[in-house]
Each structure stands twice: as structure tokens, then as C-alpha cells.
Design a protein that fits this description.
Number of strands of chain B: 0
Mean pLDDT of chain B: 86
Strand content of chain B: under 5%
Largest sheet of chain B: none
Structural class of chain B: mainly alpha
Number of helices of chain B: 14
Number of strands of chain A: 19
Order of helices and strands of chain B: HHHHHHHHHHHHHH
Shape of chain B: globular
Mean pLDDT of chain A: 91
Radius of gyration of chain A: 26 Å
Low-confidence stretches of chain B: none
Helix content of chain A: 25-40%
Structural class of chain A: alpha+beta
Largest sheet of chain A: 7 strands, mixed
Low-confidence stretches of chain A: 16-23
Strand content of chain A: 15-25%
Oligomer: heterodimer
Distance between the termini of chain B: 8 Å
Largest interface: A-B, 48 and 52 residues
Shape of chain A: globular
Number of helices of chain A: 13
């Protein structure tokens, strides 16, 4: 009798152990919610961030890769040498790399990719970053050299952008709908309006990611995203509306990852137009802004104050938030000096972004306190692009400049805010052509100081990246130094 | 009869053509550029210009209009500007979600709305009537999206019986595909069911006072039998009219409900297409909707004849 019980006990223990083993098996799939669906999946044919979120470093790879801290790492190029005059870069390529359609990757694909960017009919959104490439030469199947017409300080970084991922001549034309790259994940299916499925590419040349399958679900509505997270329909999202983060902050089933982005949020000012062409008026507006109130109100405390168009986590950053401290009295005095003792009226065009609409309301009340009456005009994004960005038909607007090192925009007098300063242009040119790090830092600090002092725009805050993830997921990028949601490090833990 | 049908068809075609022209020019007035939207905020003007040319947007408006209409006559709705895929295929994909959703919502609103209306009319002035009418009032007043969110919170987040949203293609798993519509369809149906209940009640209350009901009662039928056999059928005429109109409301409602439940339907497609200025897609979708609504009206006309023999006789001389 006792023996029977014993064997039953053993059997039960065995079953229990088996069940335990089955439970301990880590899942290898992930479902990620993102707010915006990309219009296409080809990062070399559009600059929409939504494209890079799905494909960057997942489906497509560049010669170099940008890591979580914004540093340049080897990508498809295993190593490189730079000539003493900084004009010739010679890359050694990884061997045995294949595209997801099975074709081999070699130096000809690199040449094809970079000959395609400057072509007359190219729709690459960042052609200008690669115009200094004079020649791409295939030395042997796994060695390629780039000759530049002048030194480009950010050349290796630019090679790591989504705009410069390596594509194959066999598949490049169809990448908009069926992207084929060399990355650790291969494209499986895109149900428009619904989801994109990716699958681990087993012949991948590099370190195998832990995930075997990733699904991106497009959920535009914040409330719907909240439900999807709470109900477990998705395992996380890389950037969640800060106003609803409180739901997840105390919940042990979730982790909230707060990191930095490249998004400098500014009240964009039309420097071409009176009264904004007057330095005193712009200084007065800068003094009228109470950054802390705006950050608390518009980003629920998640933004980092900035005083210049430069990201605080960058190694070259210098804190300029004290250039024009919050001082309504000084603002009024400056307005009077500029000839507007009673203030003036202006319009503020707001794109449909949560932080912009909220900041707009707060700024309107802060400006009203010094006599500047703002009329708030809400516009759709397509209309914003046309009115503000393309036709420069605006007084003030609010937008976040989300690209790395976009201070270069201040050297473009045709840019929407219309800052025209030859000295600054010369400085940026020197900076771009300088490759020595200490020298670059010095120049970058000077470059931050000029638009800050000139109060070209107001400078509010650096947008935070606020991800919400299942507490058992690890390996997500906390910071977002470049547009993308890199899957390779993500894995499940106990 | 043939002449009648032909005239109706010509009217139908003229309506469509006129609508197409109006939609085309109205949308052309919208500020915003699909090429700029796709290439993103930092794209160079040159890249945007290249893309505009690729999209065929640099031709004058009337040329694009003629090309568009000629294309549609051949069944070609053109290429989506921002998604770079054929519009017809995009619409067809999305109808696979919106059509079942709308039909389910229609069925739910009829199955719930009509019996409640009948019960309410029969119990006029009594407690059930008051209760049903208060509920119906609430049903009309509660916004779709709020009711949808409440359904999600209860059945998806708290109880975890149903998915909070999303859609599995039918080919992949028909059961999951259907499950995905269980919460959205009542959310979409609620206001319509409420309206139907109110209309049914009013119509039936009107009919109950008619002479023929009294005659039926005098014949020896109970009130219930008289209302069921003679009243309901007569009361259905105004209900059918409303039902036909409701189709258009349901389609409009899908824009909101599909957002709440992140369903890849026609409503959400139109919503995104408008914000991206994918005008050719918006135009194509609008034409499809106009055809659908006009066709529904035609079916309702036929249904009148079924319910009301007098109309049938008049139309077949």
C-alpha cells in the first residue's frame, strides 16, 4: 500500500517537475504597441520616425550602428581606417552576410546604396548628409572606400542613420512594402492598419537575438493603448503619453522606462517677421517663459530644461538655461525698449501633439502676463507642414526637433524660423569639417551659445522617452539617441 | 417597370458622378501636401519635389480629375500617395473588417431595439415602458467611444474574457477573428438600438389607436394578437426608413469605434488618410461609401414593397 502511495507521489512529483519546466521556458515572442503606423517601410525613402521604429537595426543595418548611448559602433563594416587628411575612409566588410531573400551582401551593395542616395530621382529624406561623398570605390568584394570632397565630422554617425542602411539592387525597389535587409529580423507580413510581423532571421551573421518573433501593433488612441497594456494584449510600448503614465507607475506588473530623446522642444519664432526680427522682443519672450511650469504642465514633469537647441545628454552639451532666466519684469522692460510698452498680439500655431497643445496654453498665459496676447490656432500636422514649415506663414509655433545634431538647421536661412547669421553659418561649416574631438567640443559649445544668446527661438525642454513595458521584459533601450526601437537586446527574464 | 428602373439607374449614375466631382475639388482645397507628409519634417525640398512628381501630383487639377474618373470606370482607383499601394486593394482589405462589424452592429440593434420598442409600446405608461425609455435615452446620449472603453475595461482588462482590441485576419483564425468583434459591435450598435426602440415604440403606439386594431379586437382577437398580427407590420414602415438611414450613421460610427478597439477597418483608414492628406484614398473611400449608402436606400425601397402590399401593387401595373 505504502509503495503505491509512494509511486503515485513520485509520479505527481514528475508531473509537477515537467509542468515546472514547461513554465520556466521563457517566451521568445513580443508584441509591441506603437502609436503611429509607418506609411512605408523603407527608411531610405522617408524620414517618418514610425518607419525607423519598425525597421532600424531590426530589418536593416548600416555600415555603422548607433548604440543606446549615441556612440558609433561597427555594423556591417567590421573595421575601418581613416586617411590623415580625413578624406578617405576604407571599410572592411563582414563576410558571410546575406540579405533576407538569400542574396549575398558585398561591397557592390554598399556602392549601390550610396550611388542611389544622391541620384536625381532619389527620395531619400537626408540627401544633404551624403552630398560630400565624392566617390565610393569597390576595392575587393569585402573592402570599400569612400572619398569625401571635404572632411565631415559626423561622417561615421551619418553612416549609421536609417537613411543610409544598406539595400540590395535586387530588392531596393520593393522595400516600401516588402523590406529586405541584412538585419537580425526578417519582414514577414504587414496587415495595413493593424500590425507588422517580424521573425528572427536564422542565417543572421551577428549575435542571435533572444526573440524569435516580434509583432508591432498600431494603436493610435492613448486610452486604447492603456487597455491593451493592462489586458496584456501588448507587452510594451516605447513611448507612452506622459499624462497616462501614472496608471503604470505603481503597478508591479509594469516598468516605466524614462530616458532621453533627441527632441528639443521650442516655441519656433518667425525671425523674418516683425516684431520677431527685433532681438529685444525675442529676449523679452525668453524672459517671459517659466520653463518649470511648462515642463510640469505639458510633460507632467518628464522633460529636461534646455537653454539652447542641443540635447543635454550629449557630451558637448553646455547648460545655457540661465541665459535669459524667468523674469517678467525684465521682459516688460525689454518690450518697452523695443517700442512695445503695451505688448502686441500674435498667433501661435499648434500641431496635434500633446506636448505642443499643452505648452501652447501655458505659454499663452505666461506671455499674457507681460502683455503679449497670443491667439492659439490648432492645425493638423499636414497643414502645419504646409503653413509653418514650407510656406513660413506663422508668427509662433511649438514643435520638437527630434533629429540628432539638428543645431545645423540654424545655419540654414531658408529654414522655417528664418535665422540668418553668416558668422554662425561659418562656425557650423568649421564644426562639420573638424574631426578632432576636443576641437569639436569647443566649437559645439560656441555653436550652442550663439542661438541661445540671440534667442532665435524660445528653448523649453528636451522631450523624454517614456516607455511602458511588461516587468519581465529586459533589454529595451531606455534612451533614444536615434529614431528606432531596437529589438536585438530585448529578452524575457523571470 | 423597366423604364422606371432605367430612370432610377441614370439618377444613381448622375448622383455618383456629381458626388465624385464635388469630392475631388473639395478635397483639393485642403491645405497640406502628401509628399511632404511622407518624406517627413526634415526632408529636403528637392526630395519632396521628386516624390510629388512620382505621385503624379504636379499635373493640373482637371487632368487629375479626368484621369481619376476614367480609372474608376475601369475599376482602377489609383495608387495611394502615402502607402504606395493600389487604393482598391486597400479598401477591399479594410472592408473585411468594417463590413462584418457593421452587419453585426445592425443585427444587434434590430434584435435589441425592436423587441424593446414593442414591449415598451404594449406597456405604455407603466414601469417597463419608463425603464426602457430611460435606458434608450441613455443609449442615445452615451458616446460610442466611452461605452467602448467601458466594455474594454470590464471584459478585457478586469475579466480578461475578450481581447481589448485588434483584429486577427479571418484566414489565420476565424474564431479569433470573430472574438475581436464581440466588444466593438455592441459599442457601435448601442445608439442605433436606442433610436430603433424609440421609433418602434412611437410607431406602434400610433398604430394601436387605429380603427383597424379596434376592428381586429371586435373580431375577437386579444389586444396582443391584434397588435402582433396587424399592428407591428404597419408600424414597421417608419422603422425601415430609420434603418436605411442608420447604415450611414453606423459607417460614421466605425471611425470612432475602430480607433477605440484599434481595428484595421475602413473608418480608421479614412481617418489616417485624411490626416496624411492621402487624398486619392479618401476620394476612393468616399465613392465606395456613397455607393453603399445609395444601394442601401434602394434595398430599403424594395423592402417597403415587401412590407406594404399597396406599394407593391402600385409599382407593378
Amino acid at each position: 500500500m505504502g509503495r503505491i502511495f509512494k509511486s503515485i507521489g513520485t509520479a505527481l512529483a514528475l508531473v509537477g517537475a515537467l509542468a515546472g519546466a514547461a513554465l520556466a521556458q521563457q517566451p521568445t515572442e513580443v508584441r509591441i504597441g506603437v502609436a503611429l503606423e509607418p506609411p512605408i517601410l523603407d527608411p531610405t525613402a522617408g524620414a517618418a520616425e514610425a518607419i525607423d521604429i519598425v525597421v532600424y537595426q531590426n530589418i536593416f543595418e548600416g555600415l555603422t550602428a548607433i548604440d543606446e548611448n549615441g556612440a558609433v559602433q561597427p555594423g556591417l563594416a567590421s573595421s575601418w581606417t581613416i586617411s590623415d587628411d580625413n578624406l578617405t575612409y576604407t571599410f572592411k566588410l563582414h563576410e558571410g552576410v546575406t540579405f533576407h531573400d538569400g542574396t549575398a551582401f558585398d561591397a557592390d551593395d554598399v556602392k549601390f546604396t550610396f550611388d542611389r542616395i544622391p541620384a536625381a530621382d532619389s527620395v531619400n529624406a537626408h540627401k544633404e548628409l551624403y552630398t560630400d561623398i565624392a566617390e565610393v570605390k569597390v576595392i575587393d568584394p569585402f573592402t570599400v572606400s569612400f572619398t569625401l570632397s571635404k572632411p565631415v565630422g559626423l561622417f561615421l554617425f551619418n553612416l549609421g542613420r536609417g537613411d543610409a542602411v544598406i539595400v540590395a539592387p535586387e530588392s531596393a525597389d520593393n522595400n516600401a512594402t516588402t523590406p529586405i535587409g541584412t538585419g537580425p529580423f526578417a519582414f514577414v507580413q504587414w496587415d495595413k492598419g493593424n500590425r507588422v510581423l517580424l521573425e528572427r532571421y536564422e542565417p543572421y551573421w551577428g549575435t542571435m537575438p533572444a526573440l524569435t518573433k516580434a509583432t508591432y501593433l498600431f494603436i493610435g488612441d492613448t486610452a486604447a493603448m492603456t487597455s491593451a497594456l493592462l489586458a496584456g494584449d501588448i507587452d510594451g510600448t516605447n513611448n507612452f503619453a506622459p499624462d497616462s503614465l501614472a496608471v503604470f507607475e505603481g503597478n508591479p506588473q509594469f516598468k516605466v522606462l524614462v530616458g532621453t530623446t533627441e527632441g528639443e522642444t521650442i516655441p519656433g519664432t518667425n525671425n523674418r517677421k516683425p516684431p520677431f526680427d527685433n532681438l529685444k522682443v525675442r529676449q523679452a519672450m525668453a524672459h517671459a517663459l517659466d520653463r518649470k511650469a511648462i515642463i510640469d504642465g505639458a510633460t507632467f514633469g518628464y522633460g529636461t530644461p534646455i537653454g539652447a537647441p542641443f540635447a543635454p545628454h550629449n557630451a558637448y552639451y553646455v547648460d545655457l538655461t540661465g541665459t535669459y532666466p524667468y523674469d517678467p519684469a525684465a521682459a516688460k522692460a525689454l518690450l518697452a525698449e523695443a517700442g512695445y510698452p503695451d505688448g502686441f498680439s500674435a498667433t501661435l500655431k499648434l500641431p496635434p501633439l500633446g506636448y505642443a497643445r499643452l505648452s501652447g496654453q501655458i505659454i499663452a498665459s505666461q506671455f499674457a502676463a507681460v502683455g503679449i496676447k497670443l491667439e492659439l490656432i490648432n492645425v493638423e500636422f499636414a497643414q502645419w507642414l504646409q503653413d509653418v514649415y514650407t510656406n513660413h506663414d506663422f508668427d509662433l509655433t511649438i514643435i520638437s526637433h527630434v533629429e540628432p545634431f539638428d543645431i545645423g538647421n540654424y545655419a540654414n536661412p531658408d529654414y522655417y524660423f528664418g535665422y540668418d547669421n553668416p558668422d554662425f553659418r561659418a562656425l557650423i561649416k568649421t564644426l562639420n569639417e573638424t574631426t578632432d574631438d576636443a576641437k569639436r567640443k569647443e566649437l559645439a559649445i560656441e555653436a550652442q551659445t550663439i542661438p541661445a544668446k540671440d534667442a532665435v527661438n524660445g528653448y523649453l525642454f528636451e522631450l523624454a522617452q517614456t516607455g511602458v513595458w511588461n516587468a519581465k521584459l529586459a533589454g529595451m533601450w531606455q534612451n533614444s539617441p536615434i529614431e528606432g526601437l531596437v529589438l536585438r537586446g530585448i529578452h524575457w527574464v523571470e | 417597370m423597366i423604364l422606371f428602373a432605367l430612370r432610377r439607374f441614370l439618377g444613381f449614375a448622375a448622383t455618383l458622378l456629381l458626388a465624385a466631382v464635388v469630392i475631388f475639388y473639395l478635397l483639393d482645397l485642403l491645405p497640406g501636401d502628401p509628399a511632404r507628409f511622407t518624406s517627413g519634417i526634415t526632408a529636403t525640398p528637392e526630395a519632396v519635389a521628386n516624390l510629388r512628381a512620382q505621385m503624379g501630383l504636379d499635373a493640373p487639377a482637371h487632368e487629375r480629375l479626368l484621369g481619376w474618373i476614367a480609372g474608376m470606370l475601369r475599376g482602377d482607383f489609383g495608387m495611394s500617395y502615402t502607402q504606395r499601394a493600389p487604393v482598391a486593394a486597400l479598401l477591399w482589405e479594410r472592408l473585411a473588417v468594417t463590413l462584418p462589424l457593421t452587419v453585426m452592429a445592425m443585427i444587434i440593434s434590430v434584435v435589441i431595439g425592436l423587441p424593446l420598442g414593442i414591449v415598451s409600446a404594449r406597456a405604455r405608461g407603466k414601469a417597463p415602458d419608463t425603464a426602457i425609455m430611460v435606458l434608450a435615452q441613455l443609449g442615445v446620449a452615451v458616446p460610442n467611444f466611452w461605452f467602448g472603453m467601458m466594455l474594454t475595461l470590464v471584459f478585457a482588462v478586469a475579466l480578461r474574457w475578450l481581447p481589448p482590441g485588434g483584429f486577427t485576419p479571418r484566414g489565420e483564425n476565424p474564431w479569433l477573428s470573430l472574438r475581436g468583434l464581440v466588444l466593438p459591435s455592441p459599442a457601435l450598435a448601442l445608439p442605433q438600438a436606442s433610436i430603433l426602440a424609440r421609433v418602434m415604440r412611437t410607431a406602434l403606439v400610433d398604430v394601436q389607436g387605429q380603427d383597424f386594431i379596434r376592428t381586429a379586437r371586435a373580431k375577437g382577437l386579444t389586444m396582443g394578437e391584434a397588435v402582433w398580427r396587424h399592428g407591428v407590420r404597419n408600424a414597421l414602415l417608419p422603422v425601415l426608413t430609420i434603418l436605411g438611414l442608420q447604415f450611414a450613421f453606423l459607417i460614421a460610427g466605425t471611425i470612432i469605434v475602430e480607433n477605440v478597439f484599434y481595428l484595421p477597418g475602413l473608418g480608421r483608414l479614412i481617418f489616417t488618410a485624411i490626416s496624411e492628406r492621402d487624398l486619392i484614398l479618401v476620394r476612393g473611400a468616399t465613392v465606395v461609401l456613397i455607393v453603399a449608402v445609395t444601394a442601401t436606400m434602394f434595398v430599403v425601397d424594395l423592402a417597403y414593397a415587401l412590407v406594404d402590399p399597396r406599394l407593391r401593387e402600385r409599382s407593378t401595373p
